[in-house]
């Protein structure tokens, strides 16, 4: 494995640890352009790498109390169904379509994250709302539906889907940003395993390469998690949105030119 690929693996883990997503955004291009892996195989291997790395990183966040198990269970359970179905569809979908959809959804997620709060809400009301984490039946149904939809997109475009999950957890489930990141990692790991299973048997997998890349990414995730707990929630939210827009622009430009 080249030095640039090792750096990409390390950065994959750091991004996962800080933002709770974004691992496949780095992993897939690294496998494609640095290691010359075939597109479908790169998408499948990326899901496997992120699944393991996100599991380790989610455990770190769980030990710090930043994983909501109820939301993880509901979102993850229904996400598995959507992800597996999306992966089966992804096997026969042209790569250019997959990556273009990926970039457009990233723009939408970034816009949601950067959208300012409604001015008529008082600071006290915002605190109360933030404390009232989604627990009612109606809210959990919405979480389940989002799990299926996000899962389908996850399987189709071959990413963990944290860039969609984090905004959903902040905006729908009203989780604080840091808890949304930890919960997102737990959900990403569950859905990525399902997505990887959806590609197995239909595309070739280099398990040796996956093992090395994953080991480096896990080391990076430890570093990223430490940084995440030293940055304010608002700063993480803005940084996450800007990160999404930059990567989405690169992907679209790469597809056009």
UniProtKB/TrEMBL annotation:
Cellular component per GO, a single term: plasma membrane
Q: How is this protein situated with respect to the membrane?
A: Multi-pass membrane protein
Q: Which family does it belong to?
A: Belongs to the 4-toluene sulfonate uptake permease (TSUP) (TC 2.A.102) family.
Where is this chain's protein located in or outside the cell? Cell membrane; Membrane
Note the InterPro entries from the entry: TM_pro_TauE-like, TSUP/Inactive_protease-like
Protein source organism: Thiohalomonas denitrificans
Q: What is this protein called?
A: Probable membrane transporter protein
Residue spans crossing the bilayer? 6-35, 42-63, 69-87, 94-114, 148-172, 207-227, 239-256
User: What keywords tag this UniProt record?
Assistant: Cell membrane, Membrane, Transmembrane, Transmembrane helix
